[in-house]
């Protein structure tokens, strides 16, 4: 059989490539990223199998911080549980309380007064801003830019001071009560919040100039860790991560009505790329949007009581309810099953980071080692939110 | 609410409290199913036919109980026909009432909320002790459905959803170690949170919360003296 000379050349070329590959073949290497690693925000361990610099497979190992909250809720009363769920996602603790309290209120048929709903929304958005400005700095840090990290921590401090002034706790406010809030806002808080919001606007502009406009940052993040919309949704990736893949879905707008988002003038930001850069960009825009929402709510804050009339001993009637809200890290939900006692019979806690991180084995396949850090940083997870 | 429910010992007396505890109607009228939920149910019924055992709704959300044989089909129908492309969670429920801490004769852990001792099932009912339930929703049409399936108590096992929703992987691993329910067709059933040598299934109701067995809730009977304090209280009077 005679071959066309071009076909023969092609075969020879492939043979040569194959010989080189055999000569240069490296043994696969297993790299343990974590549990204690500067770039993992806590005790996440990723066992990465490498071929040279390329990831063959990645297996996240979680559970180093598992505290068994679902079991613990069965041994506590409703008011005691808010203390626990503060510690799920500790960067935005206030936002964790909201769906749980809302679920208990639905079952009890209690409705919080408008002022309480407004203050809840303001504090939820403030915790979103606190979470996101830290991200804006931290992600830049993880791809090698030191300065923005300090800006991120500085700005978060402003917001945490506001949360502390209103609730008494920087990280764990435990401020929601079934039927309303613990106390009203302190004097001067509204003016101070307006000032801080202006600072945050300015500093987000700084981030945009420093980070988004930076060529090195673009090279490190553009096209890295692309999540297609369909794959992301099937894995349960939610929140800004999914919106960065072009899915126009925000529970504040599209979910069952909760808090006062329907009264506000705001928009949902999406980005079509789905890569690490898109996730950074979407969170940056959402920080601004949250600031706008807070300013609107401060202007329209209604007067009135902050606590509805509820019985002194909270007994939740028999029933079950699924409440999910748009938290800074994504969809946070509680499936509450009550049997008419002072505590829930079963609480399924659906935390955002758990599902966001479960896509890692799929997402990390075939990327290079430095990109692992970019992807981990851009997904933005909190270990307490994964391990619960 | 019936009188059978014992008030927990840590409840404060409601003396001087002018707000009465509102007792719900003993048998409230069943609310009609919201239109959106009824539409979804009709679509599911068309595809699954006999696969649906019971359905219900709670606060506007549709809850459907399917047969174990139809569990995976239900996921496919939800994804392809209802456009529920997003998986919130897969988890389990143990409907057994929690046994008293320390056995029936013991006083038990009085600090924990007293749960009813008779077995009741939630929305859409249940056939036995264990159920697996999952929540899927649509990112484009903004609806969602909670699917439930009964699991045999003697040999708890159900079809895996990983081939339909890849995100079910971790949720099913968690459900397996927490409830002991195995998932057929799961690619790698191993521990997720707990160490590999862990015995037992913590979220089952008969799995005791050990910290409460050893020491009662410290908020209830705090007898530890402050540092430097000489007087040791012996027994808290009944």
3D structure, described in words:
The complex is a heterodimer of chains A (388) and B (238). In chain A, strand 4 and strand 5 form a beta hairpin. The longest helix of chain A has 29 residues. Chain A has 388 residues and is of the alpha+beta class. In chain A, the strands form 3 sheets. Chain A has a 3-stranded antiparallel sheet. In chain A, strands 6-7-8 form a 3-stranded antiparallel sheet. A two-stranded antiparallel sheet of chain A has the order 4-5. Chain B is an alpha/beta fold and 238 residues long. In chain B, a hairpin with a 2-residue loop joins strand 1 and strand 2. The N terminus of chain B is likely disordered. Chains A and B meet through helix 2, helix 9, strand 6, strand 7 and strand 8 of A and strand 3 and helix 3 of B.
Percent helix among the residues of chain A? 40-55%
- What sequence of helices (H) and strands (E) makes up the elements of chain A? HEEEHHHHHEEHHHHHHEEEHHHH
So how many helices of chain B?
Answer: 4
Structural class of chain B: alpha/beta
Major sheet summary line of chain B: 5 strands, mixed
Largest sheet of chain A: 3 strands, antiparallel
Order of strands, widest sheet of chain A: 1-2-3
Oligomer: heterodimer
Overall morphology of chain A: globular
Question: Tally the helices of chain A: what do you get?
Answer: 16
Content-based structural category of chain A: alpha+beta
Q: Overall 3D geometry of chain B?
A: globular
Total strands of chain A: the figure is: 8
What's the end-to-end separation of chain B, in Å? Answer: 28 Å
Give the overall average pLDDT of chain A.
87
**Helical amount of chain B:** 10-25%
Tally the beta strands of chain B.
7
Largest interface, C-beta within 8 A: A-B, 59 and 60 residues
Our Rg estimate of chain B from Cα atoms comes to 22 Å
């Amino acid at each position: 059989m005679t071959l066309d000379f071009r076909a023969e050349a092609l075969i020879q070329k492939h043979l040569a490539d194959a010989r080189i590959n055999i000569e240069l073949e490296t043994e696969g290497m297993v790299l343990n990223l974590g549990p204690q690693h500067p770039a993992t925000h806590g005790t996440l361990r990723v066992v990465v199998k490498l071929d040279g610099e390329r990831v063959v497979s990645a297996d996240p190992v979680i559970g180093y911080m598992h505290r068994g909250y679902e079991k613990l809720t069965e041994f506590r009363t409703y008011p005691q549980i808010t203390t626990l769920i503060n510690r799920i996602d500790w960067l935005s603790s206030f936002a964790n309380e909201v769906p749980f309290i809302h679920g208990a209120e639905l079952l009890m048929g209690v409705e919080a007064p408008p002022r309480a709903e407004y203050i809840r929304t303001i504090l939820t958005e403030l915790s979103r801003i606190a979470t996101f400005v830290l991200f804006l700095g931290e992600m830049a840090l993880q791809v090698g830019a030191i300065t923005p990290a300090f800006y991120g921590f500085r700005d978060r401090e402003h917001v945490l001071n506001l949360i502390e002034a209103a609730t008494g706790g920087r990280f764990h406010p435990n401020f929601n009560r079934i039927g309303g809030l613990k106390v009203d806002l302190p004097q001067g808080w509204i003016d101070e919040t307006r000032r801080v919001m202006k600072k945050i606007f300015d500093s987000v502009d700084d981030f945009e100039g420093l980070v988004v406009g930076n060529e090195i940052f673009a090279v490190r993040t553009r096209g890295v860790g692309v999540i297609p919309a369909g794959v992301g949704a099937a894995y349960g990736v939610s929140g800004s991560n999914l919106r960065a893949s072009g899915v126009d879905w925000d529970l504040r707008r599209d979910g069952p009505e909760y808090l006062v988002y329907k009264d506000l003038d705001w928009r949902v930001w999406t980005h079509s790329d789905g890569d690490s850069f898109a996730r950074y960009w979407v969170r940056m825009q959402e920080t601004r949007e949250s600031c706008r929402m807070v300013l609107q709510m401060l202007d329209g804050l209604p007067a009135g009581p902050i606590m509805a009339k509820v019985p002194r001993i909270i007994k939740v009637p028999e029933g079950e309810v699924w409440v999910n809200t748009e938290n800074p890290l994504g969809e946070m939900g509680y499936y509450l099953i009550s049997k008419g006692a002072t505590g829930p019979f079963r609480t399924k806690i659906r935390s955002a980071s758990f599902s966001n991180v479960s896509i890692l084995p799929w997402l990390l396949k075939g990327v290079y080692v430095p990109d692992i850090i970019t992807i981990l940083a851009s997904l933005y997870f909190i270990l307490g939110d994964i391990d619960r | 609410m019936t009188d059978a429910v014992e008030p927990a010992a840590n409840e404060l007396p409601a003396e001087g409290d002018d707000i009465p505890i509102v007792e719900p109607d003993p048998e409230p009228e069943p609310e009609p199913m919201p239109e959106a939920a009824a539409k979804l149910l009709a679509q599911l019924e068309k595809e699954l036919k006999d696969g649906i055992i019971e359905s219900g709704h709670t606060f506007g959300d549709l809850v459907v109980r399917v047969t174990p044989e139809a569990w995976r089909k239900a996921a496919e129908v939800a994804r392809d026909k209802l456009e529920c492309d997003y998986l919130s969670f897969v988890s389990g429920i143990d409907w057994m009432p929690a046994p008293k801490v320390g056995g029936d004769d013991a006083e038990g852990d009085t600090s924990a909320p007293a749960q009813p001792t008779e077995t009741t099932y939630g929305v859409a009912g249940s056939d036995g002790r264990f159920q697996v339930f999952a929540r899927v929703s649509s990112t484009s049409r903004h609806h969602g459905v909670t699917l439930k399936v009964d699991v045999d108590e003697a040999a708890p096992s159900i079809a895996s959803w990983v081939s339909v929703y890849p995100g079910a992987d971790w949720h099913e691993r968690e459900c397996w170690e927490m409830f002991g329910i195995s998932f057929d067709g799961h690619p790698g059933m191993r521990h997720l949170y707990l160490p590999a040598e862990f015995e037992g299934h913590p979220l089952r109701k008969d799995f005791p919360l050990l910290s409460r067995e050893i020491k009662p809730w410290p908020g209830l009977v705090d007898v530890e003296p402050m540092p430097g304090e000489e007087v040791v209280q012996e027994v808290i009077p009944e």
